[in-house]
Structures are given as structure tokens and as C-alpha cells.
Amino acid sequence: MRRCKVLFLLLAALLALAGCGTSYPADPEGTLDRVRGGTLRVGASPNGDWVRLPDGSGGAARVEGKEAELVQRFAERLGADIEWVTGTEQVLADELKHGGLDLVIGGLDDKTPWSTHAGLTRPYTESRDSRGSLHKHVMLVPLGENAFLLELDRFLLESGQA
Amino acid sequence: MIGTNSTQTVRFGHTELPPEQQEALRKARKYEWITIAFLAASTALVYAVLGNSQAMKAAWVEDILSFLPPLSFLLAARVIRKRPSEDHPYGYHRAVGIAHVVAGVALTVMGAYLIVDSAIGLLSAEHPTIGGFNFFGQTIWLGWLMITAMVLTAGPPIWLGRVKMKLAEKLHDKVLYADADMNKADWMTAAAAAVGVAGIGLGWWWADYAAAILISGSILHDGVRNTRGAVSALMDKRAMTYDDDAPHPLARQLDTYLRGLPWTQQARSRIRDEGHVFHVESFVVPAAGSMPSLEQLEQAREACIAMDWKVQDMVIVPVAELPSEFLPGPTTGGER
Question: Which residue in A2, A11, A96, A151 has the most chain B C-beta atoms within 10 A of its own C-beta, making it the best mutation to test that interface?
Fold first, then answer.
């Protein structure tokens, strides 16, 4: 019975803390705070209409496509500049896992194998491929950066309705 | 008086249950069905909000495992009604013990697996990721939903546990007791999971694993305790009370009664707990070395069986002196 009381007190204390805290949920690594008004490092893997690299742009100054535009607007909302990094999904997912990126896009869906390396946003839109199977599209964020993820989820939901 | 006016008597083997136990059995079955219905709802709810939290996963696994004791109770309650047969002269009472072992082993294995799984997560510092969900056009943190689910599922098992505990005592049913005991402690699991998720929200990613380890530890603890109790019961440990707390007082009552008979000088019994009912072997040393009459023996046996419904099988063996190889230890059941 004593254990119960301790647990309840802990829960109450946590919830109270949560109420006072500026951000709940919080990021263990502080991604959202760092990005806001700073730089958003985005990994982009070319994939159909979702992410396109304009011809001839060997560097990564510009990225186009539906998801690239969404990310652009997200960065504007946070008052952040975007630093684009292009590469294959594997390279980008690995970089994201080790803290080198804040966000990865590439027309990924919720069946992505990179869920071991990254957190997934909520599926924000759906599409059908030529075989007729349904894809629920997501973006990748660093594992456990829940404030950043929630901010992005909010943005994606709002922009989906607009 | 037993079964005189009831159209359908309830039996454990060839033992007809007294009205009080019949009523308790009926209630126990009802509450086990209620438990199963509650668990079905609660596992579905928790599964829906599982997310990436290890603590939630552990709580969910515990919910799934909680199906085992009620199911084994209901199954065993059916099997042990069978009367003893030529092939099974002792009846089918051990079905209870077997169900108990199976449930205990399942708990032990899953508890151990979850501890390892959670420890790996903790050591590899894999931060649990919990995002938002769409709540009528608003994006809300999924963690709130998890905490709500945990708070909702915390209450009912406490009540179920309390009710079933009383019935377990009346029926002398250890599976029911183990089930009730687990239910009573279930809310701690829910609270721990809620604390773990709340911790994630604060940016304490490790809180989730800490809570998960706590929960899996309690699953493992339940498992080891149940397996141990069930195995030693199957190995014919002397009859204990329903909560395995003390030797069953019936042993002492029987011996006192037998010693008090005018034709006996000494008496001791050994008792096996078959699940609900006891099988008793009593050794008596007749006074002045003269054999008791068949009538005296028969009367003593009848009186012992009438003492408690749990005394089902009873043999009285007249001996020249108490065989110490069959009756180890200085005293009978309840004596100190």
C-alpha cells in the first residue's frame, strides 16, 4: 500500500510539473527550441512528385515537390532557415538517427522500414500507386523529440485541412 | 440436508458442495466472466493507444496474460465436476493445479522477456516517440490518451479482486486466489505506465523504460510466486490455507478428534490438497493394543468426513505405532 501512495504522488507531481512547464511534451534533445528561429536541417530523398531535385542542381540548394513545399511552410512558421541535405533514404535515416538532421522527407509511407531509426509523423495524406495499394504518407523525425513531432503533426493536420 | 431440495446438485468429483460453496462457485464463475469481459474491453482500449511506449506495451501484455487465470478457473471448474472413474480413481481435481502451473509459467516467461526487452531499450537509449493524434480537428498529444486509458482501466480490477478474494477463501481455490491477488495489484501497473508516459512528456525518455521494468518485474514476481505455489501443491505439499499462509487447521481438527475417541491412543494424519478437496490418510494407534471394530472405524471415518466438505477421501489405518517414515516432522498440520 505504501508503494501505491508513492506512485500516486509521483504521478500528481509529474502532472503538476507538466502544467508549469513551458512545453509539454518536451524534447529530450531540445530540437524544437533549437530550430525555432534557427536552422531546420532537412534530409530529402528524391521520390516522384513528393521530392524532386531540379535538373542540374548537383548541390542541394533547392529541392522541389509537394513535401518540400510543405516543409518550406513549416520552416517559415517556425521562423527557421532550411539547410537541405540530399541522399538515399538509408544515408539520411542514419544521419537522422545520429542527430545530424531534424527531418527527413522522401514520399515515405507508414510502412517505412526506418521506424527503427526515426519517429514517424501521423499519416498526413494518402495516395494510391499504379498497383492500387494505398500509401499513408509520413515524414521522419528524430526518435523521442516529441515536442518537435507534435508541432509538425499539428502543422500537417492544419495544412491538410486548408 | 445436502442437496435435499435443489434440483441440481453441484459436485466436485463425488463431493456434493454445501449450499454456501455452491453459491460461492456460482458467483465465482459470474465474476470470472465479468473479469474476462472487462479484460477484453481494456486490452482493446490499451492496444488502440499503445504507441511507442514500452511501459504501455508491458501493461498491455499484463492485461493479455490476465486472461489466463480466469480462463483456467472456468475450465477447471468444469473438469473437476467429473466423478472419479476406473481410470481416474482420485477424480479430476488436479486439473486445477495444472491450470495453475500453466498460468504461472506463462507469467514467468513473459515477465522475464519484458524485463530483458525493456533493459535493452534503456541501455540502447532508444527515445520513445509519441506524437499527436487527431481529436475532432485538434492535434493533441497521444500521451494524454495513454494516461487516460491507464486511469480508466485502473479501477475495476481492484473491485473484482476484492470480490473474488472472498470467494476464493470459501471455495478453497488457489487459482481464484492468485487471480484475485493479481487483480488487486493491477492498478499499480496502470499507475506505473501512466507515470512512465507522463515522464516521456517531460523529456525524461528513460522514465518509460523504468516504468516498464517495474511492471515486468511485477509480472515476473507474480509468475514465480504462482509457479512455485502450484508446483509444490502438485508435489503433494501438506494442505495449506487458500492463501498458502499457514498449514490448514483441518489437519489439527482431524487429529484432535481421532485422538479423543475412547478406543484410540494416538493418531496422526497426512493430507493432500487436491485443489479444492483433501485426501486424508489417518494413522491411529488403538488403545491397549486391541483392534477396533469395523463399526468403530466406520463411525470415525464418517464423523471426519462430516467435519468439513473438503474432506473427500479418507482412509483410517490402524497401526501398532505411528509410522515416522510416512509422518515426518514433530507435529501434525497446525501444531507448533
Answer: A11
pLDDT score recorded for residue A17:
58
B192·A7 Cβ contact <8 A: yes
Which of A14, A15, A96, A124 should we substitute to test contact with B (largest number of B Cβ atoms within 10 Å)?
A: A14
Give the DSSP letter string of B170-213.
Answer: HHT-HHHHHHHHHHHHHHHHHHHHHHHHHHHHTT-HHHHHHHHH
Report DSSP state, residue A109.
B
Please list every residue in chain B whose beta carbon sits closer than 8 Å to the beta carbon of residue A120. 129, 131
Residue A141, beta-bridge partner list? A119
Q: Any chain A CB within 8 A of the CB of B139? A: yes
- Name the β-bridge partners of A125: A137
Non-local (6+) Cβ contacts of A128 within 8 A are A134, A135
Contact A157 B198 (CB under 8 A): no
CA distance A58 to A64: 14
Looking at the complex, does the CB of residue B151 fall below 8 Å from at least one CB of chain A?
Answer: no
Q: Do A4 and B134 touch (CB under 8 A)?
A: no
A25-161 placed in CATH 3.50.50.60: no
Verify whether the Cβ–Cβ distance A146 to B143 is below 8 Å: yes
Average pLDDT of chain B, as a whole number:
86
- Give B97-133 as a DSSP string: HHHHHHHHHHHHHHHHHHHHHHHHHHHTT------EE
Residue A16 has pLDDT above 80, yes or no: no
Would you list the domain boundaries of chain A? 25-161
Unique residue bearing C-alpha cell 474476462: B36
Instruction: Tell me how many residue pairs between chain A and chain B have CB atoms under 8 A apart.
Output: 95
**What percent of chain B shows pLDDT beyond 70?**
95
Domains of chain B: 11-234 (1.20.1510.10), 250-318 (3.30.70.1350)
Contacts of B201 in chain A (CB under 8 A): 14, 18, 24-26, 146
Q: Cβ B129–A149 below 8 Å, yes or no?
A: yes
Residue A2 pLDDT class (50, 70, 90 cuts): low
Give residue-wise pLDDT tens across range B229-242.
Answer: 889 888 888 888 88
Average pLDDT, stretch A27-35? 86
At B259-305, the pLDDT tens digits run 888 888 888 888 888 888 888 998 988 888 778 888 888 888 888 88
